[in-house]
Amino acid sequence: MTDTDDSEMRDLLALAERLGRNPLVIQGPGGNISLKRDGVMWVKASGTWMAEATERSILIPIDVAAVLDGLAAGDPACETCEPFVRRDLTDLALRPSIETTLHAVMPQRVVVHVHCVETIAAVCLSDAVERLTARLSGLNWSFVPYVRPGAPLGRAMLRHLTAETNVLVLGNHGLVVAADSVAEAERLRAEVSQRLARVARAAPKPDREVLQAAAGDGYSIPDDDRRHAIATDLVSLAAARRGSLYPDHVVFLGPGIVTADAGERAVDAARRCGRVGTPLVVVPGAGVLVHAAATPGARAMIGCLADVTCRLASDDPIAPLSADDEAQLLNWDAEKYRQSLDARMP
Ligand SMILES: [Zn+2]
To answer: Which of 1, 194, 328, 342 is an S-S bond match for 295, by CB 3.0 to 4.6 Å?
Structure first.
């Protein structure tokens, strides 16, 4: 499958890399891509990064009919889809994406799933359907209310698909587009992202003096100034304080955000909240502090939170994930596996 004459696969991997390098579309190991042909679905392996698609093998072959049969039969193997890997076609010793069922249920050859910031900023609101209806007219789209990724999401998608559906917008999660060519899938992805685009507010500068006073014991000021918007833009801060807006936030940063009280050090705030070593501590009005042990995935997700919240308005009806949704993500073995791969990244 790495045959250099395989132009379709090359195009798919080039698209994966391009999307993976755009933090407004993909953050860290999030998002995934697939191609179905000859009964085999090549889907991103769990924990791999789309941004690395042309540097290393990220795709793993799946018996797609077996996944669909498993979903219909309620087979618990659909939770990881590991038993459906065509090990005869690969020597990649990884699990398939936890979102493999999401790709399998779409009949089109090419499926692209992104955690597009513009989409997330619409679907973390209670009036998401009204907003999408106004922006996506003319497209064959459908909305799937939030359900945990994995087999439950695959099954929920099946209930919302018609023969024509090629855009699925996932509540509190992201976007799925499907087409029979790589170019058409990307055209659709770009069109939906562009139609949902909102104005990103510019944030006040961080207060480095206050941040320095709260830093230490592993916490320091990140280089990338845009991350401080979570703390320095008061509308962004209020939105972030409402809770977890999408699954990868919970998986990589824990539920909600930890904020330091006035004059409190980050390490003490984390301890007070029972979150020792938490990757992100927000110092309201001043900026953010990031723990030295924060994984690449966690760092990417801090950027995502800044990018999503700076698109939300003060009167937006924010609808965060419930405590039960958060607990399901944190206690899910498949996610623990993905986190362990992230922790091993250099
Ligand atoms: Zn996803």
So the answer is: 342
C-beta separation of 296 from 217 below 8 A:
no
Q: Phi/psi of residue 21, each to 5°?
A: -90, 0
Alpha carbon distance 142, 329 (integer Å): 24
| 59/188 same-domain check | yes
Question: Would residue 139 count as lying in a domain?
Answer: yes
CA of residue 83 to ligand 1 center, whole Å? 21
pTM over 0.85: yes
Q: What is the mean pLDDT of residues 311-337?
A: 90
The pLDDT score that the predictor gives to residue 346 is: 47
Instruction: For residue 200, tell me if it sits in a domain.
Output: no
Q: Which domain holds residue 14?
A: 7-195
How many angstroms is it from 289 CA to the middle of ligand 1?
A: 26
Structure tokens, 322: 């419930």
- Secondary structure (DSSP) of 217-257: TTEE--S-GGGGHHHHSHHHHHHHHT---SHHHHHHH-SS-
